[in-house]
Every structure is written in C-alpha cells, then in structure tokens.
Write a structure and sequence with these properties.
Strand content: 5-15%
Helix content: 25-40%
Largest sheet: 7 strands, mixed
Bound molecules: zinc ion
Radius of gyration: 18 Å
Number of strands: 7
Order of helices and strands: EHEHEHEHEEHHHE
Strand order of the largest sheet: 3-2-1-4-5-7-6
C-alpha cells in the first residue's frame, strides 16, 4: 500500500490529540493517510490494551484514516534501538509514505521524544539498500514535527476549523481515557474530561488565532519553506 501521509506516535490517542484535524483534512483532500502507534498504551492507568485498540480503530474511522496498526513496543519503553528502528523502517518500506508526521523531539514523556528520534532514524534507514530487512529501499520526501504541546515556535499552522468538531469526536472516542466509568477508581494523574475539552479547545484556538482562523494545528519542519509568489502569501500582517 502506498500512503501519502503517515503519522507515527508513541501511544494510541497521541495522533488524535496533536494532529487529528490535519489527518482528517488531508484525507478529505483525497490523500491516503495512516497512523502507526508504536505502543498499545498498556501503561495507561485506565482501559486495557484491548479496549484502547477498539477505541483507536473507531477514532481512525472518524478521521477517515485508511491504515492503522500498532507496532507493539512495550509502553514506557520506546527507544531508538536497532531492533525498533528496523521494525519501523520495515513499515516505511511497506507503506512508502510521501510525508511523515512525527512528535517533536523534546517532551516531558520519554516515549514521546524517543518516538521522534526512532521515527526519524527509521525513515533514514529505510532508504539504505543494504538494510537487513525485506522490501524495496525507500525514504519519505518530507518529515514534519507536530508541536501542539511543545514550547517552540511552529513553522506553519494547518487550518483545521472545518475539521475541529470531527477531531473532537475522534479524541473522545478514547472513552476509557477520558470518560471513566462510575465504577472506576478516581485517579489524580488522568485528565478529567471537562479539563481535556477546555485544553484542546484553547490549544487549537491559540494556534488558529496565530493564522487568523478559528482552529489550527502547529507543525515544525527543519527545512526552510520555499515560496514562489510573495504577493499572494496567506496570513495578514496588519
Ligand atoms: Zn502519548
């Protein structure tokens, strides 16, 4: 299968929370999209891996994502080991995505910054002909980093105003995380549903405001942006 866009993240629901609107928007533009969850999120205080897998499939459907899989790296143990890099490189060769979205390389949760390094190095290794894995050598053209929760200035923001409501539904599909049952023990480490709603709204509003729209998702790319026409550039200055 050849994908146009692949998002790689540490835990199921990471993609929904950081770039779900962009995934949906690209699918609506006709691009083939996919999500690779590195772990099954089994260290989460709530919800079993089985429940989270069901939720992930439901969220993928809501975002029109055509391909989603879990690599099965132990949760809280994501690292750019040789073994993990070869496995992710195998997926890159299988899916041949043009563009890959990775988490930003600095984060509070070690799985998130390790996922960034692992994803980058796997994309690079996938292009080495002599790599001891199957599949034709292939390297994505572009890597962009999702910086929704990073303290860094994005290089661009995607307008997700039209996708915001559906993204919200996809995030809330992870009900075990955000909508605990009455019988669940209360947990201090987990985000309550009302706080999550406020937070996701504020973040998307903040980045939307920066480009003069309702809701946005921020990204960073290491390369400079190329511009052909400076007369019709978007986002007003005054
Ligand atoms: Zn995560």
């Amino acid at each position: 299968m050849n994908l146009d866009l692949l998002a790689i993240a540490a835990h199921p629901d990471d993609v929904e929370l950081t770039c779900g609107g962009t995934m949906l928007k690209m699918a609506q533009l006709g691009y083939k999209t996919g999500i690779l969850d590195l772990t099954a999120g089994e260290m989460g205080t709530r919800g079993t891996p089985k429940i989270r897998a069901k939720e992930a499939a439901r969220a993928a459907k809501l975002l029109n994502v055509g391909w989603r899989d879990t690599l099965g790296i132990p949760d809280s143990d994501v690292k750019a080991s040789r073994e993990c890099k070869l496995r992710v490189a195998g997926v890159i060769r299988q899916l041949r995505p043009k563009t890959v979205i990775l988490p930003y390389w600095e984060a509070r949760h070690p799985d998130h910054y390790h996922a960034s390094t692992l994803g980058y190095e796997a994309c690079f290794l996938a292009g080495l002909k002599q790599l001891p894995i199957t599949g034709e050598a292939y390297r994505p053209f572009k890597i962009v980093y999702s910086v929704s929760y990073a303290d860094v200035r994005p290089t661009f923001v995607v307008d997700i105003s039209d996708q915001y409501e559906q993204r919200r539904k996809a995030i809330l599909a992870f009900a075990s995380q955000f909508r605990p049952k009455e019988t669940d023990r209360p947990s201090k480490v987990h985000l309550a549903i009302d706080r999550l709603e406020v937070e996701m709204n504020q973040l998307a509003r903040h980045y939307g405001q920066m480009i003069g729209v309702q809701y946005g998702e921020p990204f960073l790319q290491k390369e400079l942006m190329k511009v052909e026409d400076v007369v019709t550039m978007e986002v007003r200055s005054l």
